[in-house]
Amino acid sequence: MAKKYKGYLIDLDGTMYRGKESIQAAVEFVKKLEQKQLPYLFVTNNSSKRKEQVAETLRNFGVPATADHVYTTSMATASYIAEQKAGASVYVIGEEGIKSAVVEMGLTLQDENPDYVVVGIDRGINYEKLAKACLAVRAGATFISTNGDIALPTERGFLPGNGALTSVITVSTETRPIFIGKPEPIIMEQALEKLGTSKEDTLMIGDNFATDIMAGVNAGIDTLLVHTGVTTKEHLELVENLPTYTVDSLEEWDI
Amino acid sequence: MAKKYKGYLIDLDGTMYRGKESIQAAVEFVKKLEQKQLPYLFVTNNSSKRKEQVAETLRNFGVPATADHVYTTSMATASYIAEQKAGASVYVIGEEGIKSAVVEMGLTLQDENPDYVVVGIDRGINYEKLAKACLAVRAGATFISTNGDIALPTERGFLPGNGALTSVITVSTETRPIFIGKPEPIIMEQALEKLGTSKEDTLMIGDNFATDIMAGVNAGIDTLLVHTGVTTKEHLELVENLPTYTVDSLEEWDI
């Protein structure tokens, strides 16, 4: 008999959809949350999209979602910086999502001598961007990476993820970044604050043990692993921190 | 009383010149080697230039040098691959030096499903190049990096070196590359073969403890550290494998 939770943090890729295909049981599950007026927030390591874009993708899959239901690692990154230094200057490597999140938080985009260097996935990466980031970190800027994901699943196979791009600066400057996204607790603490429920009353749902479940473990939140994405049952036999619950499909989960 | 050596392996940047400025004592030293008909070979981790270009730079500084006096990590990389698999297909990230060395060695440049992936410094790096390299390494290509230098000294400061660019693929594919350049013994063994003197009769000269001196140590060759570049006397107090000899200037070295 599972506990009744009052709020849900939910992963996207592998949990709500796989690439361009929705996961129907997950869509129905979120519809039930909405009907029962249980608060939910989608928590994603994808830094490239704005929250409005993420919500639109979800609605196209039939998921009841507005921008207020979305919490991206870009939002968490901008929020983290603003808490430390309101109006800070930031040199950003990344796409639309991280740049707009930084600007919306009242931070300033700045190429030279910034207070912070932020790295998010950037498929327009080039040597000059990496050079600027290295110079800034060597000059004392605080080095932040939206997430440490090493690979991006695509139709072509696994392409370099943000954790891999970030490593250029880590290796060159011999400086470790602060990672914001799952499995780090930073994004989880911020998402919880937005969701408004307590740790005890919140469940983190995701398909990826290394990011989603470990994010819950690191933040002290109960977790539900759903086998619709990355992590297999065989894989779970090898890990130390088991999820609180495991299901094959969200159909099995009563709220 | 130092031993008399019959052949010399000599570093370039920090030993023969600093940026655009020659180191005069080093130029005079190489002139003496030439007069005494002692064989010498410049051994460099710079993969971006062809040997003819490197020789021309040296001649502009007044150093007696032909392309036959130059051994680049690109040449060592191409030679290493050809020894393993003549005519192998290679996907190359890098500039002119590595691409021409690969082609001159009879290897084939190939973007998809190559036998080898080679990464050299590439100031035209982009996401698609990194993506192709990751896909090839995941598909089983042997992963080689011309050198692990983490930073490039420039007038702007330290920019990302090839070891930093290489790390994108290392991190994303969880596969370590074979490094060819100094301090690895691979480039040294190949340079020795080209120089034609025995290990016992050869001296490695350089300014950088971590690359030049450790290359000699790893290859079992005596070393001379010259304090005209990277490594200071204070730094030497912290290391385990001391150079065989140390001088402030090559003026002090009798041949």
From TrEMBL, chains A, B:
| Keyword terms, alphabetized | Hydrolase, Magnesium, Metal-binding
Q: Could you give a GO molecular-function term held by this entry?
A: metal ion binding
Cite the binding residues for Mg(2+).
11, 13, 207
Q: How is the cofactor bound?
A: Divalent metal ions. Mg(2+) is the most effective.
Q: What Gene3D superfamilies is this protein classified in?
A: HAD superfamily/HAD-like
* Keyword hit for Ion transport: no
Question: So where's the catalytic machinery, residue-wise?
Answer: 11, 13
**Statement: the UniProt record of this protein carries the keyword Amino-acid biosynthesis:** no
What is one term from the GO cellular component aspect held by the record?
cytoplasm
Pfam families linked = Hydrolase_6, Hydrolase_like
> Which residues are substrate-binding?
182
Q: Which cofactor does it need?
A: Mg(2+)
Which NCBIfam families does UniProt cross-reference here?
HAD-SF-IA-v1 (TIGR01549), HAD-SF-IIA (TIGR01460), HAD-SF-IIA-hyp2 (TIGR01457)
Family classification: Belongs to the HAD-like hydrolase superfamily. NagD family.
Under what name is this protein listed?
Answer: TIGR01457 family HAD-type hydrolase
